[in-house]
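Tokens help. Our protein:
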Amino acid sequence: MMNTICVSDFSDDRYLAFCTRNGLVKKTCLSAYKNVRVKGIKAIKLEEDDELVETHLTTGDAELIIATKEGQACRFNEQDVRPTGRDTMGVKGVTLNTGDSVVAMAPVRPEDMLLTVTENGYGKISSVDDYRKTRRGGKGVITIKTGGRNGNVVAVRKVDQTDELMITSKHGKIIRIKVADIRVTGRNAMGVKVMNLHDDDLVTALEPVVGGEDVADDQ
């Protein structure tokens, strides 16, 4: 996943929060990135077998949810992550089971809603408050049941009922849906169908879109 973060002021009271595939999380003051060279600057130090999954602009006092492909989600206070310099590694954000990996990180508030989508085209929306808050580095709780009809989790993000989303598949299919059309359920529910797939196709990504156009009914 690639993040583009637009800023006009590299202030000292905002941060960039990073999360890696192996479950590390790092937070660095935004002002550390104001002097970018032509060839770029180091943003985070990574181990050889790790990679960056997601980066978000934060205020320093939110909560973070880290989600894994096997359906676990760890929610903790952003303040549990001490700010460090640019060229540093992260600290453990979530403890992973063998074979599991991180697919997403989201800065949230207790009143927010969280959308989870799986590779076989199922999804669900639950209140962030349904996710028990733990300390950084815990195993977390179930965000959706994986395996079987659902497959693994591919995306988890904060949403609003007025949002619309584009969902893309491995075979190049793309649909646009309204968040309001996805049922709100309990945290560990199986979810509902959000995209019809054929043969060995799989959901690969979802992104928000700007409203203003009609949403196609044909999937």
